[in-house]
Amino acid sequence: MELKESPLTATLLTSILAAVLGSLQIGYHTGNVNAPAKIIEEFFNQTWRARHNESMPDHSLTLLWSLSVSIKDFGALLGSLGVKHLADSYGRRNSILIVNCLSVAGACLMSASKTCRSFEVLILGRLLFGLFCGLVMSLNPLYIQEVSPTNLRGAFATLNQVSFASGILVGMVAGLETALGTEHHWAVMLSLSLVPALIQYLLLPFCPESPRYLLIDRGEEGEAEAALLRLRGCGDTAAAELQEMKEEAARTQGGVTIQQFFRRRRYKQPIIIVLVTNLGSQLSGFNAIINYSTRMFQAKFEEAKYLTLGVGFVNVTFTLVAFFLMERAGRRKLLLTGFICIAVCNLLTTITDSVLHLVPELRSLQVLLVFCLISAYELGPGPISWFIAAELFDQPGRPIAMAFTSMLNWGGKFVLALLFPPLLKLCGGYVHLLFMAVAASAFAFTLIRLPETKGRTFDDIAEEFRGAEGIPLSSKTGFNTFT
């Protein structure tokens, strides 16, 4: 069913911006711990010394700091398990508000750890915040996609990544010694995510619930129509979209259990697409740069921390580029462009690293390649991997698909953070060949299997899988074109 383009209304824009404040918080706590790491490690040591009258052994301190950093990703993995229950039981908007309390509690604990003189409190705060990460990075795209009109759906979903990248940059700046990354102010720095959390509590309750959730999941047609009227501002547009949702509801076969999700033939191809897209994004080298860029640059440049800020700036810039291109170029083109560019950047990085001892001047080229890889990631794989599942699945399967997406993304981050240092020690610069292979494989799969979802209604996309459960995607007209 063809829907005419919907105008941008103040209610719709407010709803989107209020939702993405959650990903801003996540980005902030991703970028703010790198620069002041040594200062917070010293706080750990001082706490240990006050308790035991001796310094903590170096290997124990390193292990404790690694735990403090990685516990967020582990918490996110656990949090992903709760997405379906929350989204189906309380709705998309209300679930975001509920899980926001985890962010508030986590930030308060992290900030209070210095006053309490307890590194355990900081670790617990990171764990709680991790639970928030796993939940909100699925709930946000779910809510955004379901309240957005078809013609703006991809662009608005990309705003979630824009907010995340902006949070990383703000966190990097706040963590500098010239800002709040000092012995006296690092606890204050860890509390600043309370600002967007509280703003979200002020704005989001006045935003509409997802009309699709109200109609298809709850059967509340009147409430769904009222929410659509607020979001679209035009009775004709709202009526047409409501009719499209009714048609989808008529084809919907009730709820889906996790077991049914992985057994239904109609979900088989979308599950594989989500698996390859997300693991291809997370294991292509981007997260190694985000986690270890300062250490990578320190070996070659004196002002490594400012080059790391450059990483954050490029990150934000190209998420904005993706925002403007998403509804023009489409998901498929941007994913293919991103994956092939990432593969080429990893190959060139390997080559330059292997000859760097012969031509030291190539170190500047390596920095350029790092920036190019980040640009390619944020152009397509970064933002699209978070929301493509919401477009490929029907209403009953969408919450589980988003939980699956969250587990893949956070699991990929966790695995890469864990394995990159030993792989770098074992393989040296050739570790980038592994990243190249992952990106090249994701490119090949995307080229063959991924349908273009730009400008298509949820029901239209679901029909491709529903109507031909046993037919490969490549046999369907339009699935492998760039139009």
Structure, explained:
There is one protein chain. This protein is an all-alpha fold. It has two domains: 1-207, Growth Hormone, Chain: A, CATH 1.20.1250.20; 255-483, MFS general substrate transporter like domains (Growth Hormone, Chain: A, Up-down Bundle), CATH 1.20.1250.20. It has 22 helices and no strands. The chain has helices at residues 10-31, 37-52, 58-80, 83-90, 92-116, 119-147, 153-174, 186-191, 194-203, 211-217, 221-232, 235-251, 258-263, 265-282, 286-298, 304-329, 331-355, 363-379, 381-392, 398-427, 431-449, 458-466. The longest helix is centred in the last third of the chain and has 30 residues, at 398-427. The protein starts with 9 loop residues before the first helix and ends in a 17-residue tail after the last helix. Residues 468-483 have low confidence and may be disordered.
Please tag this protein with its features.
single chain; 483 residues; mainly alpha; Growth Hormone, Chain: A; 2 domains; 77% helix
List low-pLDDT spans. Answer: 468-483
Average residue-wise pLDDT: 86
Number of structural domains: 2
Q: State the end-to-end distance.
A: 18 Å
Task: Provide the structure class.
Answer: mainly alpha
**Rg:** 23 Å
Helical segment count: 22
